[in-house]
Specification:
The protein is built from ten helices and five strands; from the N terminus they run αββααββααβααααα. The chain has 206 residues and is mainly alpha-helical. The protein has a single domain, classed as Heat shock protein 90, C-terminal domain (Four Helix Bundle (Hemerythrin (Met), subunit A), Up-down Bundle). The chain has a three-stranded mixed β-sheet with strand order 3-5-4. Strands 1-2 form a two-stranded antiparallel ribbon. Helix 7 packs across helix 8. The longest helix is centred in the C-terminal third of the chain and has 17 residues. The model has no long low-confidence stretch (mean pLDDT 78).
């Protein structure tokens, strides 16, 4: 349901055929679980808490919080909005309005919550890398790449497309084993002859 009219219809149509409608792009999506499933999820949340805190530190105010989510199947992470704010689709529609109310945008645009998928191999490897070395220079780039790609897949617009492109290029260089330091050395012009080796022109004048 991605047409503009859908956003307005669903605000009034709360249920259909006796079933309540729930927006899966917003937080608070609860699925019925058995006691064993609930226990397993709590254990996963506890083990991934350090990763969630670190991602929040890296992203700063770009996200309100980072939590472990279980709505995803294959994707490593997703960005969801507050239960009572605009969805990503509604935010996109309102931004396209030429005469939109800026004051309404300020409080209706929900802060984003990042939900990571603990079953995804990318998230698992990221967790392992952080446990070994938080200062790994590729870790922050990976986190920002995950954030930017989840922006796109969740229906939001990129705030800084150029930064996103630069991170992609760095990852490509890393995949091709290209050393940036080596490139910079090759591009530098040759050093000029030391001024001390040249004859002193002042002495010639004397």
């Amino acid at each position: 349901m991605i047409d503009p009219i859908d956003e307005y219809v669903i605000q009034q149509l709360k249920e259909y055929d006796g079933k309540k409608l729930k927006n899966c792009t917003k937080e608070g999506l609860d699925l019925e679980d058995t006691e064993d499933e609930k226990k397993k999820k709590e254990e996963l949340k506890a083990s991934y808490e350090p990763l969630c805190k670190f991602i929040k530190e890296v992203l700063g105010d770009k996200v309100e919080k980072v939590v472990v989510g279980f709505r995803l199947d294959n994707s490593p992470c997703v960005l969801v909005t507050g239960e009572y704010g605009w969805s990503a689709n509604m935010e996109r529609i309102m931004k396209a309005q030429a005469l939109r109310d800026a004051s309404m945008s300020s409080y209706m645009m929900s802060k984003k919550t990042m939900e990571i998928n603990p079953m995804n191999p990318i998230v698992l490897e990221l967790k392992n890398k952080i446990e070994k070395d938080k200062s790994d220079k590729t870790v922050k780039d990976l986190i920002w790449l995950l954030f930017d790609t989840s922006l796109l897949t969740s229906g939001f617009a990129l705030d800084e497309p150029t930064q996103f492109a630069n991170r992609i290029n760095r990852m490509i260089k890393l995949g091709l084993s290209i050393d940036d330091d080596k490139i910079e050395e090759e591009e530098l012009p040759p050093l000029e002859k030391d001024a001390g080796d040249a004859p002193n022109k002042m002495e010639d004048v004397d």
